[in-house]
Amino acid sequence: MNRSIDPYHSRTSDTWEAAPRVDPTASDKPGPLTTDEVWNYAHDGFLFAQGLFSQEEIDELLVEATSLAEEWPESQPGIVREPGSETVRSIFRLHKISDVYQRLFADERLLARAKQLIGTDVYIHQSRINYKPAMNGKEFFWHSDFETWHVEDGMPRMRALSVSIFLTESHEFNGPLMLIPGSHETFIRCAGETPEKNYENSLRRQEYGVPTREALDTLLEGKEIVAPKGPVGSVVFFDCNTMHGSNGNLSPTPRVNLFAVYNSVENAVVDPFCDRSPRPEYLAERTVEPVQSLVGSS
Ligand code: 6CS
Ligand code: FE
Predict the structure, then answer these.
(1) Which of 119, 215, 232, 260 is 20 to 30 A off residue 47, Cα-Cα?
(2) Nearest CA owner, ligand 1 atom 8
(3) Which tens digits make up the pLDDT trace of 119-148?
(4) Residues 28 and 35: beta-carbon distance below 8 Å
(5) Mean pLDDT to the nearest integer, 250-259
(6) Distance 11 CA to ligand 2 centre (A)
(7) Does ligand 1 come within 6 angstroms of the Cβ of 58?
(8) Rounded to an integer, what distance in angstroms lies between the CA atom of residue 45 and that of residue 21?
(9) Which ligand 1 atom minimizes the distance to the CA of 148?
């Protein structure tokens, strides 16, 4: 790609700017989602599916989340702790380290929907658990994931989506995911320059690639923030450029969410769109391995 005409250049100036999205949000391929659901996803930049997984299925996923955090080897990369404490905030690259999660990410309820929306085969760019511990799990400031994945990982175009699976109920007290409907249509170029090893800080508290107050006001014009709330097993599908964030967890129980990022096999990462080395593979997979459906396999 000719980088001088990169439609999504960001952190290349000391001022922010709003630019139009140039990629489609949803394909017109057939799949399990109805025409209305696809339309809503394309319009809002996200789709909420309540109770997609059963309590029994989630119980197993939650046991796995707890044991990963408890048994994580000291020297193994891929774990992030809360700012100023030893409490586990996130664990990455689940699709490589856990059979249970590998199977989950190949489940048709996620995979067929992701393929339908993206319109091609997909692979996993990133996966993680956010634990958001009781009473002091810290917030995630507003951001577009794509801004970081483009600049720091070299994801060329907006052809990826995240699934956020509720392993605990999401409610108003535990810092549910919040999204700005329609924000995926605008790319906010952020100001500043990416520091060396930015990820060592950004995963605890993101400072680069975050929108200004004015940028947020632009996205929020005529819009209202949405926070999908619901029981365990619910899933939010959201586009890679949808502006989102979440408050801290001030409730007495953790808020555990499982994420997988499906990217089009035609959108594999290239060199980062900044003058830094690529982030480690636990944050951004650099090899395309299409996720194979479990249907028909034994
Ligand atoms: O770094 C990442 O890949 C993800 N985490 C944060 C805090 N921001 C960007 C992106 O969502
Ligand atoms: Fe995010």
Answers:
(1) 215
(2) 145
(3) 999 999 999 999 999 998 999 999 999 999
(4) no
(5) 98
(6) 18
(7) no
(8) 12
(9) 9
Question: In terms of C-beta density within 10 A (0-12 exposed, 13-18 middle, 19 or more buried), how is residue 107 classed?
Answer: middle
Q: Tell the residue nearest (CA) to atom 7 of ligand 1.
A: 203
The domain spans of the chain are 45-264
CB 291 within 8 A of CB 105: yes
* Closest ligand 1 atom to 126 CA: 3
Three-state DSSP string of the chain: CCHHHCCCCCCCCCCCEEEECCCCCCCCCCCCCCHHHHHHHHHHCEEEECCCCCHHHHHHHHHHHHHHHHHCCCCCCCEEECCCCCCEEEEECHHHHCHHHHHHHCCHHHHHHHHHHHCCCEEEEEEEEECCCCCCECCEEEECHHHHHHHHHCCCCCCEEEEEEECCCECCCCCCEEECCCHHHEEEECCCCCCCCCHHHHCCCCCCCCCCHHHHHHHHCCCCCECCCECCCCEEEEECCCCEEECCECCCCCCCEEEEEEEEHHHCCCCCCCCCCCCCCCCCCCCCCCCCCCCCCC
pTM over 0.85: yes
CATH architecture of the region 45-264: Sandwich (2.60)
pLDDT tens for 74-133 read 899 999 999 888 999 999 999 999 999 999 999 999 999 999 999 999 999 999 999 999
Nearest ligand atom owner, CA of 244: 2
